[in-house]
Specification:
The complex is a heterodimer of chains A (161) and B (654). Chain A has 161 residues and is an all-alpha fold. Chain A folds into 2 domains: 3-92, Helicase, Ruva Protein, domain 3; 100-158, no CATH class. Helices cover 61% and strands 0% of the residues of chain A. Chain B is an alpha+beta fold and 654 residues long. In chain B, 65% of the residues lie in helices and 11% in strands. Chain B has helices at 2-29, 32-61, 68-73, 80-85, 91-111, 121-142, 167-181, 183-195, 201-232, 242-267, 271-294, 307-330, 332-335, 347-378, 387-410, 418-441, 447-478, 482-492, 494-518, 622-640, 645-653, and strands at 521-527, 532-535, 538-549, 553-564, 567-572, 575-579, 586-588, 590-593, 597-606, 612-620. In chain B, the strands form 2 sheets. In chain B, strands 2, 3, 4, 5, 6 and 7 form a 6-stranded antiparallel beta sheet that branches. In chain B, helix 15 runs parallel beside helix 17. The chains are: A mainly alpha (161), B alpha+beta (654). Chains A and B meet through helix 1, helix 5 and helix 6 of A and helix 14, helix 15, helix 16 and strand 9 of B.
């Protein structure tokens, strides 16, 4: 298998990893409560809010119970809360319109960065294939090395100050 | 006492400003006398702020309630240790603590004897002292911890009961050490640009600073997660709260920097990138402070809102960004590297990808964190960005990062031959496949779970195989027994093997997170005394509800007998208590933890007739998260531990 092919497979693998996981929900009270933010000001998920004095938690959960009993779907119930409180009741912005920027921007940035890195590495690899411009003679290198070691030893002795 | 503290702080400000200016002028003119004076001034600042902190501690311990801060965060009933922790319980105190830490770091910076990076010290110290001056200005004129009340209250308000947890002694200070510590690498980077010493020197100088700071920030976050888990009582450890995110972002970027600095040292590339990472780390850590203190985003962590403080931080961030990136631009020609690479597939490439993903994850968190503000500005609509967003966006990125940690171990520096690659990949890949298959046969059907565990086993296998190969080679060449060979191998290159240990820690954390977030079972029930309920293999019997009072609080305790698969395993007692001076009740969760899973019981509510509502959660594998955290910290310390001078010099030359 060629290196390029391997690279392709690796890249494809990474892309697959980057695809957001699709979650399937069976609507229970807790599932719906995980999609909503409690409106008492605690900024927690409704399913996580546990203050005794939090008034919105109980009323919101009771509403979910009632609507589930009436046979409403998860979408209908969540829409009810959005109509009531506005979009801020949703635990995450819905994937449409302007909100899409938040969902897409991170992956777009990573992809763009990936492309930049790919071309950078290719450029660097090509550069290394060119012959080196100058070759330092062995004796010359030796003089430099001796000088370097002497200076390093001096630094070690004297330290900072 | 308050006056002594204030005067010491005021003197510290003047001396600090002098030290900053003297360091810069002395550094420019290479004036040893002025530099020595600047250095002594930095030490004096440290002494002066220490006096100020001592004065505040004295006031806290002696209940000097005329000082507003003491009256707001302590009361007479508090134990000595909580009184001491009040130093960082409030905004003003924690700012003073910040300044104190920074002054200690500055003292270490100027006192440290170093072989490499000596010429960078004057400007670096100058930058640190300027930063310190800024914080002292805040402490003196905007958030003065020594402000006095016009009367002396009989008792103070006391500490928020939520903060009464051992976490209070460790979480804030470790986190603050993390935030403050990143000033030093930043200062050296700026100094390198100012002095045009743009080679490896500054990177070598800041490696251990960055590592220990990164470690502290990591410890702070882990303790915070543990604290949330045992104290906040919602069954989780990470809520993607804006302030949690703010402390996670600099940690991620610093992680990227710890990796990319190796590239500069080994290959002389990524010089500009390293500058960018160091600047971002510093700015993000200041941003965290800005978020907690400005009240711009709502969070459980915010101190009282103070718009003026917010503007000051914003201005500081702006100046830092402009100045530092301006310098990068100004020096960009000299920072450009004549980079060469032998192959597209090499460890270098995995490092670049790792950096991309770490910074990408940071960007994702940044976008999520600030999107409510952006949305309101653009559409005029208030929205929330909560855990579902962060989990969905970050899970794939983090999985890819963990996977890369494994792949990177298998690919050699410079150039990887295909034959080598295949040989190295074979066993880890087989182990990963076997893990997936075993999980599938055992009944696991969540693709995310199988994928995470497969990747985790793959990475673990690569690291353990690498250790095995290294030990075997030593065993053969040096005739040592396997144990000695293994110990010798780890000791021979501590930064490297410490790094691998950190990777193992991260894998264990990933296992814990996957287990507890994908396979948790929650039940909410209302029980009368004598009632039983079942969750998984556990049977819980609610025996009784007790109410009693202590000097400071009213406590409600539920007694629950628990049996696991028919065998009684003991009694668990979730509690709720009501502090006299605070309205908000505190939930004391009952947790029974094993390496397999945690049984987590929350007392939600109770009625007059003792009918009690419980929330019961079975959280699988949570303990692995804490074990992983400990491994990560040990690995980090192992990598940090100083090498002998001779050894380190030879390692540098390698």
């Amino acid at each position: 298998m060629g290196v390029k092919k391997l690279c392709g497979i690796a890249l494809a693998g990474v892309l697959v990893m980057l695809t957001p996981a699709v979650t399937v929900y069976a609507a229970t009270k807790d599932d719906i409560a995980k999609e909503l933010i409690c409106q008492c000001g605690c900024t927690l998920l409704l399913s996580n809010c546990n203050h005794i004095e939090c008034m919105s938690r109980d009323s919101m959960l009771t509403l979910i119970d009632q609507k589930l009993a009436q046979g409403q779907t998860q979408e209908q119930i969540i829409q009810f809360f959005v109509n009531d409180y506005g979009e801020q009741v949703l635990a995450s912005p819905p994937k449409r319109g302007f909100n899409l920027t938040a969902w897409i921007a991170p992956f777009a940035a990573i992809l763009l960065g990936g492309v930049v890195i790919f071309f950078a590495i290719r450029k660097w690899v090509r550069r290394s294939e060119l012959p080196p411009a100058t070759v330092i003679a062995a004796e010359e290198e030796d003089t430099y090395r001796q000088r370097l070691e002497k200076e390093l030893d001096r630094f070690t002795e004297r330290g900072y100050r | 006492m308050a006056d002594i503290g204030y005067i010491a702080l005021f003197l510290a400000l003047t001396v600090s400003l002098y030290s900053a200016v003297a360091h810069i002028i002395g550094g420019r003119g290479r004036d040893p006398v002025l530099l020595a004076s600047a250095r002594n001034a930095a030490l004096a600042v440290c002494g002066l702020i220490t006096v100020s902190v001592a004065a505040l501690l004295y006031a806290l311990l002696n209940h000097d309630f005329q000082i507003e801060y003491v009256a707001s965060y302590t009361d007479r009933s508090m134990s000595l240790s909580y009184l001491l922790s009040a130093l960082w319980a409030g905004n003003d105190g924690s700012l003073l603590f910040w300044g104190w830490l920074l002054s200690i770091f500055a003292a270490v910076l100027v006192l440290q004897k170093r072989e490499i990076g000596r010429e960078l010290v004057p400007y670096a110290a100058g930058v640190v002292m300027f930063t310190l001056t800024f914080f002292l200005v805040l402490s003196l004129f905007i958030a003065n911890v020594f402000d006095k009340l016009s009367f002396v209250p009989a008792d103070g308000k006391g500490l928020n009961p939520l903060l009464e947890n051992p976490g209070m002694f460790f979480h804030p200070p470790t986190l603050l050490v993390g935030y403050v510590g990143f000033t030093i690498p930043f200062a050296f980077a700026v100094s390198a640009m100012l002095t045009r010493r743009l080679g490896d020197e500054w990177v070598i100088t800041v490696r251990r600073w960055t590592l220990i700071t990164w470690l502290f920030l990591g410890i702070g976050n882990l303790i915070g997660a543990w604290w949330a888990y045992v104290e906040l009582g919602w069954g989780g450890y990470w809520a993607w709260d804006p302030v949690e995110n703010a402390s996670f972002m600099p940690w991620l970027v610093a992680t990227a920097f710890l990796h990319s600095m190796m590239m500069q040292r080994r290959r002389g590339i990524l010089k500009i990138w390293n500058m960018v990472l160091v600047i971002l780390t510093f700015v993000l850590s200041i941003l965290g402070t800005f978020l907690t203190r400005s009240g711009i985003l709502s969070s459980v962590h915010t101190f009282a809102e103070s718009p003026l403080l917010g503007y000051m931080f914003l201005a500081f961030i702006g100046v830092t960004l402009l100045g530092a990136f301006g310098l990068v631009y100004y020096r960009s020609r000299e920072l450009r590297s004549e980079a060469e690479m032998e192959s597209l597939v090499s460890r270098e490439s995995t490092f670049l990808l790792n950096n991309l993903l770490l910074v990408g994850a940071t960007f994702a968190i940044f976008v999520g964190n600030f999107f409510p503000i952006i949305s309101e500005a653009v559409r005029g609509v208030k929205i929330s960005v909560g855990p579902p967003f962060f989990n969905q966006v970050n899970t794939p990125i983090f999985l890819a990062i963990v996977l890369l940690a494994g792949i990177c171990t298998l690919i050699g520096w410079r150039q990887a031959s295909v034959k080598n690659l295949l040989r190295n990949f074979l066993w880890p890949a087989i182990i990963a496949l076997a893990t997936s298959l075993a999980l599938f046969i055992a009944g696991m059907r969540q693709a995310g779970g199988i994928l995470t565990f497969a990747i985790s086993s793959f990475v673990l296998a690569t690291i353990l195989l690498e250790w095995l190969r290294g030990s075997r080679a030593r065993h053969r060449t040096r005739n040592e027994n396997y144990f000695k060979a293994f110990v010798g191998l780890l000791g021979a290159n501590r930064p490297r093997y410490g790094g691998y240990m950190v990777h193992i820690g991260v894998v264990l954390i990933a296992v814990g997170v996957a287990g507890s977030s994908l396979f948790d079972v929650t039940r909410e029930v209302s029980l009368k005394p004598g009632d039983s309920m079942t969750i998984n293999q556990y049977i819980l019997t609610f025996d009784r509800l007790d109410r009693f009072s202590t000097e400071t609080r009213d406590i409600v305790t539920a007694s629950i007998s628990v049996s696991n698969g028919g065998t009684p395993i003991g009694r668990m007692s979730p509690e709720k208590y009501f502090h006299r001076s605070y309205d908000q009740p505190v939930t004391e969760v009952a947790i029974r933890s094993t390496i397999r899973e945690d049984l987590y019981i929350i007392l939600v509510d109770y009625a007059e007739d003792d009918t009690t509502a419980f929330k019961i959660i079975v959280n699988p594998l949570v303990r692995w998260l804490w074990i992983g955290g400990i491994v990560l910290v040990l690995g980090g310390l192992f990598a940090f531990w100083p090498e002998g001078r001779r050894q380190s010099a030879s390692a540098q030359r390698e």
